[in-house]
Amino acid sequence: MAPKTARARRLGIALRTHREAAGLTLEAAADEINSTRSTLSRYENAQTLVSPATVRALLSLYGVGPDEITAAVQLAKDTRKPGWWVPYSHLLDRRTIDFIALEAEATGIANFEPSVVPGLLQTADYIRGVMRGGPHTLSDDQVEQRVQLRLDRQQRISDDEPPIFDAIIDEGALLRPVGDRSVMEQQLQHLLKMSELPNVTVQVIPLSAGYHRGTRGSLHILEFADPEDPLIASVETVAGQMVLDRPGDLRTCTKIMEHLRTVALSPTDSRNLLLHMLKGR
What we know:
single chain; alpha/beta; 434 Repressor (Amino-terminal Domain); Endonuclease, Chain A; 2 domains; 6 strands
């Protein structure tokens, strides 16, 4: 099963929208192309890659114009191109791979973390500490593979066309040692360095803010360049990453992220706090 990328989601939405506009049920459309209801449903929900030929057949059936068909066929071809994360697929569960595939196409990333530094801002030694303290017992080789995977994910932040990245960190995550003293010092220095990038904003929620709406767990919200691509939210549970795309869930997650931005220190005050913490070590 292929990762549910933003392009695959966009194609699925287009197939469903055109089918409904044509007044056809899944069963009727499937019969016309000698397929099944469940197969078409998987196409529309981006659970299975759809071939360019099938896209052309479906959109022709739905009475879509030639220009739109050409664009959709190209999109189908693009969704079949392997992403950079493919070599790491054996390391992670399906939901996490789905999230990484979506993150790779996002133009805006907002991430709140209550317990650890956001993954896209972690140093290699900090990642090692996180992996060794995780829920699974990993060999040294497995740890290093996961370190490299996370470092590869981070490359987008400093690309020529990087996403906007808003990181919100609970102060408790910065006070909790991961690795030895030098690891934490290097991590704080790295946060300060990354906060200087024009596309990166770092905010810290001070302990003095007390209990807040993000205390229960981490939260990601992804935005995409194409206006037809809806927001995606993700929360991390003990069972792994959970991607949320239902409108009600997205409204809740968006409100929570906005609340966290308001209770966090400003970027300038957050930077000053990081400097103070670094000097105090």
